[in-house]
Design a protein that fits this description.
about 10% strand, alpha/beta, 10 helices, five-stranded parallel sheet, about 240 residues, Rossmann fold
Length: about 240
């Protein structure tokens, strides 16, 4: 019974780890876009899932917004990020959402972080490889074909979170599977000549530092997102001339 309750709770937190209608209806998760666009010298498109919208933290604490603020502090006037991300999305769901958005034009830079829900749902890694490679090419297109303006972020390890420890799943198995998915997305990213930011090792510090986890016991805190933004900052700043 305890395991069953934990699985149900995880589904609530991840906005539907199945193809069924999401049960999690927090406003930050209900739509692919977050805030009205603001003008700036540079534009930013962020593609992903709960880790991109910053589930369980304030929007300003999400890594896209913290990255925007770091860049603005260095004189790079970046408009509010255009975010296409919903908690619980897999690669195929992100692909479908991008098509629905029917975006036009290009962006000064693009970030892509996707795959944790493929791992959670037990989707085949070969399917992930195919769809991730397609999403990466889509991101490059949104960057005007300039690979230097695309930044892939690795999948963090949710196996070290308090929720995972109480979920009935084996934390070591989760970590191993996350490593496999990251090995796949890293290989595809580097082969395409795109920047890869590996935040996974640092995400495992949450095993001993609870301040890196949000109050839901599953998603990263603003403190962890700050680390991701900092890891991306220099590389992004260098392409914004």
């Amino acid at each position: 019974m305890k395991i069953l309750l934990n699985i149900i709770l995880f589904s609530l937190l991840t906005s539907g780890c199945t193809k069924k209608e999401p049960m999690y209806t927090e406003p930050t998760s209900s739509t692919p876009t977050t805030t009205p666009a603001t003008t700036g010298d540079y534009t930013y498109l962020a593609l992903g899932d709960s880790y991109t919208i910053g589930e369980a933290v304030k929007q300003a604490e999400s890594f896209p917004y913290q990255l925007q603020n770091l860049l603005k502090a260095k004189g790079k006037n970046v408009a509010n990020p255009k975010i296409i991300a919903v908690t619980g999305w897999t690669t195929d769901e992100l692909q479908s959402a991008i098509k629905r958005e029917a975006l036009t034009g290009t962006y000064s830079f693009v970030t892509l972080l996707i795959g944790v829900n493929n791992q959670y749902r037990g989707y085949p890694i070969n399917t992930y490889k195919k769809e991730f490679a397609e999403l990466l090419q889509t991101a490059i297109t949104f960057a005007g074909g300039d690979k230097s303006k695309v930044f892939v972020v690795s999948i963090p390890d949710w196996g070290v979170t308090p929720f995972a420890k109480n979920s009935g799943r084996n934390s070591q198995t989760i970590s191993s599977e996350i490593d496999s998915f990251n090995a796949a997305n890293q290989e595809i990213t580097l082969a395409a000549g795109v920047s890869y930011t590996n935040i996974t090792p640092a995400s495992r510090n949450a095993a001993t530092d609870i301040s890196l986890i949000a109050n839901d016991g599953l998603h990263p805190s603003g403190k962890m997102y700050a680390e991701w933004a900092s890891a991306l900052f220099t590389n992004v700043a260098n392409v914004l001339k």
